[in-house]
Design a protein that fits this description.
2 domains; DNA-binding; about 220 residues; three-stranded antiparallel β-sheet; Arc Repressor Mutant, subunit A; mainly alpha; 8 helices; about 60% helix
Chain lengths: ~220, ~220
DNA sequence: TATACCATGTAATAAGTTACATGATTTG
DNA sequence: CAAATCATGTAACTTATTACATGGTATA
């Protein structure tokens, strides 16, 4: 149901066609709540049926028309009421941490690849979020700029501050994930050293990892 | 597809009935990858059909039987191959951050409630993860203990270290979310003060939030 | 012998993914 | 006039959620 409110949020800034909306979505709120076009179009239909938005045919070219959607009074109410509802937190489902929990079944090099991919993944996301944040802080982000013009009922500073707050949270999260993966790489190195030492001793399976080699601590890797 | 590997991971420790497996799931790997029983049972059927696990009827009571599942050689291979595959990262879909991005549409008290719920949510998760972590570190966690007995091919220290690594990541994440929400509460306080100051001046909408009141910085709130 | 727990699901629905499909208009 | 982009989807599938259903076994 969040998709509906992500779309409503965009339409509080200005009326848009489905196409415009989908595009605007992908470069703004889509970084917080992803949805493909094929989910957006049907949802817009349902939203019209439910009265939270209106569709209007506007001319397109000489003969054609396109459908422009705008939020209704009822839609604004629904958006306000949404803010009164508790957030429904999704159940934990984390593919990267699930993998990491059973790294003993992986070749150490495969585990390292997974962790480096993790770092790469969050470095890319971080860059995207940072770009959003820069655009928001400078009030240059196109959708935000439009919103700041059209929204007369809220303080521009508040509008900006909440978006900054949101994206800062994502950036901190990306940093955390990168730091976590780096600790994982250090752990693999330590386990490797311990394993080799054990083998050199002819001892087979290793003992007391974390007391051999350097200590692995959470504070170290940052 | 991760559910399959979460179940395989449990079955690398010992054979179990569907019921045992579901129970074990909820108190261990289910904290990393949630699934309800109604998803587990059908998946087990599919896994038998695909040959990664075997089912065997074992006596239950005088006349009845129950189905015990055990991992096959093919299942162990599949688990190892899974470790060679890159993680498929889900698209970003964050209901709490989505809400926060548009807090200007919320009553400040409603926004505060959302943030306090966020803190409460992650405090509870943190406690759960911490409990898991304590059990793992002490090697008292029942499924882990069983695994440490039965798994002769991996170093017990490595088995433990990767699980510790995984859960530490979650705990750090919980701390981050709590700190984020606390910054949000501070932001709301600052915007409120600025708003009141503005109104007292008869200025209507507020100006220059972030320069009035105390500064809100990321380092401050922790 | 009642209550807790063991055991195993199904049905209906909702949500999300992937791939494909089609034509119109604007612009270089 | 060709290419880009605007415009709007549909179909098939997978995954996940919610709620319900049913009966057996162990134990106090």
């Amino acid at each position: 149901m969040s998709l509906r409110y992500a779309l409503l949020a965009l339409l509080t800034a200005q009326p848009m066609t489905g196409y415009d909306l989908a595009k605007a979505f992908h470069v703004s709120v889509g970084h917080v709540w992803h949805a493909p076009d094929s989910q957006i179009y049907p949802e817009l239909k349902r939203m019209v049926a439910d009265g939270v938005i209106e569709d209007r045919a506007v001319p397109w070219g000489a003969t054609s028309t396109k459908t422009q959607y705008s939020i209704t009074e009822q839609g604004i109410d629904a958006f306000g009421q949404w803010m009164e509802q508790p957030v429904e937190y999704p159940h934990e489902r984390d593919p990267a941490h699930l993998r990491a929990a059973y790294f003993e079944w992986a070749d150490p090099d495969a585990a390292r690849r997974r962790l480096r991919e993790h770092i790469e993944h969050y470095a890319q996301r971080r860059a995207q979020w940072q770009a959003q944040l820069d655009g928001i802080r400078a009030r240059q982000h196109p959708i935000l700029a439009r919103r700041l013009e059209s929204d007369t009922r809220h303080s521009p500073d508040a509008i900006v501050a909440f978006k900054v707050f949101t994206y800062e949270g994502f950036i901190d999260r990306a940093d955390l994930e990168i730091a976590w993966a780096e600790r994982g790489l250090a752990l693999l190195d330590d386990l490797g050293e311990a394993g080799e030492a054990g083998e050199a001793d002819g001892a087979g399976r290793v003992g007391r990892v974390g007391r051999v080699g350097r200590e692995i601590t959470r504070s170290e890797s940052r």
